[in-house]
Amino acid sequence: MHERADANILELVRLALLASVLLLSPLHASAFDYDESVDGDILSNTEDNPTLIGVLDPGLNVISGGVFWTAPAVFDGDKLSVTVPPGAQIEAITLEVSNYLGNIPASTKVFETPDYQALESRILSADGIYPFTAPPFPLPPGDYGFTATFVGGEQELPGSYDWEWTIQVPEPGPGAGSLAAVGILLALARVRPRSATRASCDPKPAALAGFPTLAPGRRRGV
Ligand SMILES: [Ca+2]
Ligand SMILES: [Ca+2]
């Protein structure tokens, strides 16, 4: 009976450890990813009506694309917005500009919608990685706009550049999963004393009958 009780406990411990590993592992939800080359050009070039492309996920959200200006009336600008859902927030925003060609200053902006209040604007003229520092991070739930275009006026055409916004949304810490695992371990902690109590009620083997019972916490020779 001792062997069976020990086997049951070992099996429960094994299952609890397995559950702990599964439940305590960080939940890396696949973060939002929008790539113009795959998902299509951001159609809007109007700040007061940006293209809403989706809801940000926990983790590193990446939105990438490119703009060009090849003639006075032939250009592509990208003005998009995303939603930060209830309970989430933005803790960092970085813009990477690459393949910058031509002599046209780039204009980028992060802004709030629907009031279009600029949180930070930049004028860029070269490749680089530009962390946005002015917004009062973390940004609370709501809609936020991001623009990539050129500064207007007389420019030497053509020009183009690729842009990539990286938007960090904190991932939730271990929550319900860890609590479930802790619950399993606490249940096991209750199982063990019951098994031990049941085992102690078993009749003593005949060879041990008549031997004095040791006091709890004491060992022979102590
Ligand atoms: Ca584009
Ligand atoms: Ca566009």
Describe what this molecule looks like in 3D.
By secondary structure, the chain is of the alpha+beta class. It has a domain at 33-169: Jelly Rolls (Sandwich), CATH 2.60.120. 23% of the residues lie in helices and 39% in strands. It has helices spanning 2-24, 36-39, 176-200, and strands spanning 33-35, 51-55, 59-71, 74-76, 78-84, 92-103, 106-113, 118-124, 128-132, 142-150, 156-169. The strands form two sheets. Strands 1, 3, 4, 6, 9 and 11 form a six-stranded mixed β-sheet that branches. The longest helix has 25 residues, at 176-200. The chain is elongated and about 85 Å long. The structure holds calcium ion (CA) (2 copies). Residues 41-43, 45, 76-78 line the site of one calcium ion.
Would you spell out the secondary-structure blueprint of this structure?
Layout: H1 2-24, E1 33-35, H2 36-39, E2 51-55, E3 59-71, E4 74-76, E5 78-84, E6 92-103, E7 106-113, E8 118-124, E9 128-132, E10 142-150, E11 156-169, H3 176-200
Parallel strand pairs: 1-3, 2-5
Antiparallel strand pairs: 3-4, 3-11, 5-10, 6-9, 6-11, 7-8, 7-10
One calcium ion binds next to loops.
CATH topology of the domain at 33-169: Jelly Rolls
Query: How far from one another are the termini?
Result: 29 Å
How many strands appear in the DSSP assignment? 11
| H/E element order | HEHEEEEEEEEEEH
The low-pLDDT segments are 15-29, 176-184, 193-222
Q: What is the arithmetic mean of pLDDT?
A: 76
Number of helices, where a helix is a run of at least 4 consecutive DSSP H or I residues: 3
CATH class type of the domain at 33-169: Mainly Beta
Largest sheet: 6 strands, mixed
- If classified by CATH, what would the architecture of the domain at 33-169 be? Sandwich
Report helical residue fraction: 10-25%
